[in-house]
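Open question from group meeting: does this chain pack into something compact, or does most of it stay loose? Before anyone orders reagents, we agreed to write out a predicted structure and look at it together. Recording both the input and the output here so the notebook holds the full record.
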Amino acid sequence: MDVQSWTFLIVGLTFLVYIGIAVWSRAGSTKDFYVAGGGVHPLANGMATAADWMSAASFISMAGIISFAGYDGSVYLMGWTGGYVLLALLLAPYLRKFGKFTVPDFVGDRYYSNAARIVAVICAIVVSFTYVAGQMRGVGVVFSRFLEVDINLGVIIGMVLVFFYAVLGGMKGITYTQVAQYCILIFAFMVPAIFISILLTDTAIPQIGFGANLGGEIGSQIANGETITLLSKLNGLHAELGFTEYTDGSKTMIDVLCITAALMVGTAGLPHVIVRFYTVPKVKDARISAGWALLFIAILYTTAPAVAAFARTNLIEAVSDASYAGGEGEKSIPEWFRNWEDTGLLAWVDKNEDGRVQYLAGAPFAGKKPEFAEGRGASGERLVTNGGLDASANELYIDRDIMVLANPEIAQLPAWVIALVAAGALAAALSTAAGLLLVVSTSISHDLLKSVFMPEISEKNELRAARFAAALAVCIAGLAGIYPPGFVAQVVAIAFGLAASTFFPCIILGIFTRWANREGTIAGMLSGLGFTVAYVVYFKFMGGTPDQLWFGISPEGIGAIGAIVNLLVTATVSRFTPPPPVEVQEMVEEIRIPRGAGTAAAAH
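Structure tokens returned:
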């Protein structure tokens, strides 16, 4: 069977599994819908948390960015990994002991204010929609290539599927669907990584192959009489083509620190991950499930740098100086190249009209992505109509988000492996999208309607409102996926920055201090959110240039500064306004002290 047939088969089977689980685990109460009844086993919750955490950014885009940025791309790896450790050790057990459904629930009760709760709801919705845009974009990329449909149609297909099992099953359906999705995505990520590691380095463990000597055909090359490592080979290829060496970085130290910090504290403030720790029966189970999740996450995260290096090496070897003509003794452009051209995510413009792909440092187009016309040029390339060619000699445009998906094709692996990767990418994107959309749904139905505006609403009507809010959120998420503001990992990084500048300070102060009060927290959250949003909007949408960046800090890293702004404003306002009530201060002490930390029934 060809790739498309295998994709229909494998993706179709996985979709049937997801739908079957959603029907089997249909939510029958608000507790089922919000926290899966609070009775999920720690091992299952660890898998579900890992799937919720490892989004399209982790599966598709993280290795893609590392593949192109090399050392600079490691900020995503360090920030997201360190952030989960921070969340698991510093926040999760205490929030679970608090025993509420959501982060806005915690904020509203800890800061004794519906106004604080509403601000938290607004922040949760902004963060979730920014994050989910990256997931829906990832779904569209997969469908556009492997099912040969337009990216926008791919996003709509993903919307329909998420709508079904998120709206029907709520957290209960999402949890058990995510267990299946974790198994699929990790298998799909590891199988091609192991195959390619063997082909390139004769080593079956990708993490070891990443730094091993080259084997196979490429490994037959000799440098000064000695075999060379994969990274040495990649550095040499980069030097030949004018790129910065793969193992060197170009970002400023302050930007690296800020992006890493924003991703770390943003992780610890992500509402869709935090809510997972409310689904287990006891505080002890929250700690155990956090440990399992960290182990499951580490499998993919330690493999991603190897996948990035494998993909980059194979890409350069396959396309540099290749041609469609491919005469005797010449390198021919492979079939996968044409397939990805048809998606609009890869483009070649033959600037010097020599019939060969010149893949060099620089942009092929003047600040624009390619726009295609019907037909092909004299050298076989897909015709590009947007003009405005860049002055650099580079003729090849590659969307970073395709690297993991194209990796098995570039390495000439079997068709079923290529289709398996597509299924894994969809599992990663859809699992996180469902969790995010549930946060939006819960924020509206529980944190706004039940807790603020309609406290007497019946459980049946609250469940209806939750499902309606989830359906509306799915539609808005689809629009965000059709018009994303950047690459998947960049969009997600901005979402983490927003979480860092809003939720993390108020949660950390709410747990570990007694003096943080209502007025300070509201002012701090609004200040952090406003500062971060203004910076991101200016540099992403209003034409801000790199030379205007504050101290060289990129929009992906500004959330770390936003968190500091939040902390300073909260501390200052709290200092000059009345302290929290005595009962709130006693509640804070009770949350931190392990005494009585057995079963914590979720308060409704």
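Observations to bring back to the group:
Residues 3-27+42-210+244-311+413-592 form a domain with the Sodium/glucose cotransporter fold (CATH 1.20.1730.10).
The mean pLDDT is 81.
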